Structures are given as C-alpha cells and as structure tokens.
Amino acid sequence: MTYIGRFAPSPSGPLHFGSLVAALGSYFQARAQQGQWRVRIEDLDPPREMPGAADAILRTLEAYQLHWDGEVVYQSQRHDLYQSQIDHWLEHNAAYYCECTRKQIKAEGGFYRGTCRNKHITSPKACSVRLCMTQPVYQFYDIKHGEIKIPKPLADEDFIIKRRDGLFAYNLAVVLDDIDQGVTEVVRGADLIEPTGRQLSLYKLLAKPQVSYLHLPLALDQHGHKLSKQNHATAIDDHQPRPALLNAMQFLGFQVPDDVSQAKIEEILQWGVAHWQVSQLPMALEITPRFSNAAR
Ligand code: GLU
C-alpha cells in the first residue's frame, strides 16, 4: 500500500515555527517511505481566519522547497460532503440535534451527558448536531509514544459534528477528508493527541480502515504557551529559509552536519529524508526551543 501523508494547516495566520515543525515532520515521514505528501487547507472557521493566509502558507511551503503531491484541497469547498454525512446519520438516528449551551454543560460537570439524545428535536434552530457515541475509543497507539489513553468521560461523550453557529466540526471534516484523500498516516502536533480518540471513533462508525498516528513535540514560546497563529507567533521568513529550516530540523532531533547545513535548501531536505528516523524525535510532548540564532 502506498503511504499517503498530509499537512493540514488552518489559515488563521502565516506559517510560524511550530507549523513548520509539523510540515517538516509529516514531509520527512512521508518521503522517507517514498510516500505522497498532500496539503489540505483547513478553512472551516472563517471568523478565525486571516485574509490571504492560505496563499501565504502555500508560498512559504514553496519557499522552503516543500513540494506537495496533487491539488491542494480546501475544506471550504467540501461542505456538501460533510453535510451529506450528517444528514445520513440524522436520518438513521445515529446523530441528533442538541439545544444545550456550553454554560449548561459546564454546570453539569463539563462533559455532555446525552441530555437531548431522546428529545427528538425536529426544528433545529440554534442547535448543534451531536453524534451518538456507540464506538468509543479509550486508547490508541502512537508510533512514537506507544499506547495513549483517552479519559473515559471524554471518549464516551456524544461529541459535536456541526456547531450551533452552523460551522462543521474539525473532527468530522478532518476524518472525512483524510478518508477521501486516501491518507494512511497522520503526522501532526501533540496538541491534537486528545481529539485522536474521537477521530478513531469516526473511522469505526464509518467502517473504514484506521490510519496510524505520529504526534510531534509541540513548540512553546518563552512563556510556555503553544506557538500559534492566534497568539500571533512570528511568521517564518520566506526569503531566507535556511535558519528556520535548520532550527526546525534540530527541533525534530536531527544533527545536521556543517557541510549539509550550508548546502542548497533542496539538498538539506534530501539529506533529511535520507536520515529521518522516528527514534530521533525527542520524547517530550512540549518543548521550548533554544537556539543560538534567533530565527524561529
Ligand atoms: N488544521 C489543524 C491545525 O492547523 C491540524 C489538523 C490535523 O493535522 O489533523 O492545527
């Protein structure tokens, strides 16, 4: 079976050091197995997006010589796929409308207890859609970290597949797209370990073969916060890719020899593909990078 990996950035801002780590980790893991590497723009949540960010991300990937296979997929163009799956589940009583607010759920202890499961709400104004969780996943295997446990109340929850504001939920879109794109392995940041259980439940409900998972260490800033586009993490430099590329490779556990670090960008990447091993990755799930040069 051909390996198909992917990088799936949300266009909430330009690519920063943390997202470069995710891009490179998924790229090396795919290319080291002669696999394909696809790019999907996860533009599901317009209020959190920044105009022009999707194009900027693609330009940055090109500047770093990270060439993807096939066409870029945009989640904003795939609402029909998501909605038709939701309609199918609603028709078969495998999903239902829910009118509970976040405040109510918090008051009940923070986990949703299926309050609307048997209410049979038919006029779904200001309702979310929840999935009946009949296939909970309590643990999964991560290629680097081994068995990872999911807390039972979280795994058992009837989670949201469409939000009250009409936006499709990340967990649903990511799984339907990964299935549709033939993805065989998901390599991404450790901040997405928790939703992995829910995503695996969806594979089971859809009776699709499961993918494998590799979660990469998350880059933190000096204050211990995740580098994120929402926190306005500094964009990496498109004109001088070398410093950030080398720092991201060091973060991923490479010791790049001096002569390689001075080679062309595509040669550095080729060296990375040839030397990449999951065992070189640090075990820590979160790391504050410290580099002698300031490029992040
Ligand atoms: N779009 C998500 C993000 O930018 C990543 C989704 C995934 O890799 O599953 O954080």
From TrEMBL:
Positions with a binding annotation for L-glutamate: 6-10, 42, 170, 188
Record's cofactor remark: Binds 1 zinc ion per subunit.
SUPFAM superfamilies on file: Nucleotidylyl transferase
Protein residues bound to ATP: 229
GO molecular function, one term: ligase activity
Motif ('HIGH' region): 9-19
Record keywords: Aminoacyl-tRNA synthetase, ATP-binding, Ligase, Metal-binding, Nucleotide-binding, Protein biosynthesis, Zinc
Cofactor: Zn(2+)
Enzyme class: ligase
A Pfam family it matches: tRNA-synt_1c
Motif ('KMSKS' region) on chain: 226-230
Matching Gene3D superfamilies: HUPs
Span of domain Glutamyl/glutaminyl-tRNA synthetase class Ib catalytic: 6-268
Binding-site residues, Zn(2+): 98, 100, 112, 116
Nucleotide-binding listed as a keyword: yes
This enzyme's EC code(s): 6.1.1.-
Function: Catalyzes the tRNA-independent activation of glutamate in presence of ATP and the subsequent transfer of glutamate onto a tRNA(Asp). Glutamate is transferred on the 2-amino-5-(4,5-dihydroxy-2-cyclopenten-1-yl) moiety of the queuosine in the wobble position of the QUC anticodon.
Family affiliation: Belongs to the class-I aminoacyl-tRNA synthetase family. GluQ subfamily.
Name of the featured protein: Glutamyl-Q tRNA(Asp) synthetase
Species per Swiss-Prot/TrEMBL record: Vibrio olivae
Classification lineage: Bacteria, Pseudomonadati, Pseudomonadota, Gammaproteobacteria, Vibrionales
Gene name tied to this protein: gluQRS
